[in-house]
User: Fold these one by one.
Assistant:
Number 1:
Amino acid sequence: LALEQGGLEEALALHKARFQAQPKNRQALLEVVDLALRLNKTDEARQYLRDFLKEHPGNYELRRRLRELDQENSAAWWEPYDLQVPQIDTKMFNQERYPRSTYAWIVDFMVTRINPDLSRESYVHIAQKVLNQQGINELSEVLLQAQRQDLVYIKTLNPDGTSYQPENVQNFNLAQSASLYKVAPGSILEHAYIEHEDAAEVDPAFHM
């Protein structure tokens, strides 16, 4: 009611109280964040997301939203080079055309930047289209060679335009294991992550 009457500050206070009473309620958090952003309280919205992610580090949708807020005034260094899957025509990759294939590679992309100390940071982007049930079985469990903090995103893109985040992401040694869902023939499974290489690991013969 307060929101309908334009009392955004009052509505924010009410939703903060609700979230304090239910600190694990993701929807309550999102309502606080959305209202804070509408009131141009971006720093406060960021802090709520950071605090929540400390307790729930596996929530990659909220991690993505925090990253977007942190980068709203400056694009990530890899964005000018990256490929956007929705802009790629994937209709030609289908079971009729490739009857012996279970899935198709849509994107297999990596770009690397070299820092002044000769350490390297690489952005890796993978997208694969499922063609049949066997493809679902092969791809719906993903093992990513990345630490949790280096995972940019992982998601399922469906032909109807819907997108889903993984239900379970688990630590597995130095990697992450993710269980994707809502996967069907025609779905595209997409993930991206960052790789780091210290200067000491770089070939000494390399020169800037």
Number 2:
Amino acid sequence: SLIPRFTVLNPALCNCFPAQTGSVCANLLARALGLCLNDGVLARLSCASGAAVAQLVLEILPRIRVNPLDYELRANLLWAGVLLHNALNPGLRGAPELELPARELMLRTGCSHARAVALLMPAWLEFLEPKEPLLLMQLCHLLLNVPLDFAMPASAVRLALERLRQIFAAAGLPTTFTDLKLGGEAVGEILGALPWDEEGCLEGTVLSF
């Protein structure tokens, strides 16, 4: 791919707005949460920066849907994308549990990357909850305003994921396989096509969307 020495970003020339506003936010949110949940070097710093961008994106999404030509909102989304791309480095594991199923879903349906990650993101976070229950609960509290429940963090995460699905639905993004004209059998087919290792983890490192 071509990597420019520098780029001039003009929010007034974002031709993807307003039709793809929800998709832009879904892509940014997926990347931001991937930074929050990575277990590589600089994990604490990437988690903090990812959480800040995710919070910004969730705040902007309902506002920019109402006023897609708002220059300030566009500028903030552009800058969020710059921060997330600059945060990638070889020490970050990425989010293969989200990215690899999303790519398989794109191949099967022809949907955009953003629509695929929006559909799969709640299931991905629920899958990770047993591994990082307290971290995920704290993220959900910060991003989606759910009450902290240290006795049962999974219940707080489930409440947050339901709120996330509602946000995506309001933005015109898919929240069920039916939205992409797929039946329930597609879940098993997609999971069966993924490169699982002997320990039940997805192989490979994904550093870019």
